[in-house]
């Protein structure tokens, strides 16, 4: 069965963005891009998003590789994005499902479990803290790639909240990047 894996940048005090969605504190370097792209190409063929993150991704990645000054990362991730299946959790998205897009508006647990049983590589949740919280509350997230950034924000939007049930996780691997970000991979 495919795993549902959350990828998220997180501050030392557990925030994924500032109070107004700011993410300018996230540290990213080329080695991190290479690490993620290698992992995605080997292990994932499907991305899951909340509506807001999907809209943001869809406005950039389909044409990112053709833009003047596109980086190697832009080209690699754009290629992966074009091939990847997309799942969007939304009750308001005005886009119909097709061969590359599945919109889930209700019956979250059943629909996600059906998708997990379809042969293929793992499903990755990019950002989308609201979607991650909803999925975690229903015990659907199997693992987390947490990119722990060396900053304390003090306030903002959390990846986990008080409504999440307790999840016992096991640290499987870590990676330290030149940006001082520590990537930790946890599985249930």
Which key features would you list for this structure?
alpha/beta; eight-stranded mixed beta sheet; Dihydrofolate Reductase, subunit A; 5 helices; 10 strands; two-stranded antiparallel ribbon
What spatial form do the alpha-carbon principal axes imply? globular
Instruction: Kindly state the number of beta strands.
Output: 10
Mean pLDDT: 92
Poorly predicted ranges (pLDDT <50, ≥5 residues)?
Answer: none
Helix content: 25-40%
Q: Would you list the SSEs in sequence order as H and E?
A: EEHEHHEEHEHEEEE
Distance between the termini: 14 Å
What is the radius of gyration computed over CA atoms, rounded to a whole number of angstroms? 16 Å
**How many domains would you count in the coordinates?**
1
Helix-strand makeup class: alpha/beta
CATH architecture: 3-Layer(aba) Sandwich
CATH class: Alpha Beta
Oligomer designation: single chain
How do the strands of the widest beta sheet line up side by side? 5-4-3-6-1-7-10-9
- Largest sheet, if any? 8 strands, mixed
What's the topology here?
Layout: E1 4-11, E2 15-17, H1 30-43, E3 44-50, H2 51-60, H3 72-83, E4 85-89, E5 101-104, H4 108-117, E6 122-126, H5 129-137, E7 143-149, E8 157-158, E9 170-176, E10 182-187
Parallel strand pairs: 1-6, 1-7, 3-4, 3-6, 4-5
Antiparallel strand pairs: 2-8, 7-10, 9-10
Helix pairs in contact: 1-3
Describe this structure in words.
- 29% of the residues lie in helices and 29% in strands.
- With 188 residues, the protein is an alpha/beta fold.
- It has one domain: Dihydrofolate Reductase, subunit A, CATH 3.40.430.
- Strands 5-4-3-6-1-7-10-9 form an eight-stranded mixed beta sheet, sandwiched between helices. A two-stranded antiparallel ribbon has the order 2-8.
- Strand 9 and strand 10 (182-187) form a beta hairpin.
């Amino acid at each position: 069965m495919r795993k549902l894996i959350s990828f998220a940048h997180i501050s030392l005090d557990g925030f994924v963005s500032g109070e107004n969605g700011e993410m300018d504190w996230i540290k990213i370097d080329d080695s991190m891009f290479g690490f993620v792209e290698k992992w995605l190409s080997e292990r994932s063929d499907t991305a899951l998003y909340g509506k807001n993150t999907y809209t943001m991704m869809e406005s950039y990645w389909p044409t990112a590789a053709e833009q003047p000054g596109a980086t190697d990362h832009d080209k690699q991730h754009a290629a992966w994005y074009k091939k990847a299946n997309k799942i969007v959790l939304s009750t308001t998205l005005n886009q119909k499902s097709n061969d590359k897009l599945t919109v889930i508006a209700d019956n979250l647990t059943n629909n996600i479990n059906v998708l997990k049983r379809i042969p293929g590589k793992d499903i990755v949740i990019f950002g989308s803290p609201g979607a991650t919280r909803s999925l975690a509350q229903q015990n659907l997230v199997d693992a987390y790639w947490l990119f722990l950034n060396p900053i304390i924000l003090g306030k903002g939007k959390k990846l986990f909240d008080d409504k999440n049930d307790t999840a016992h996780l096991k640290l499987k691997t870590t990676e330290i990047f030149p940006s001082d970000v520590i990537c930790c991979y946890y599985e249930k």
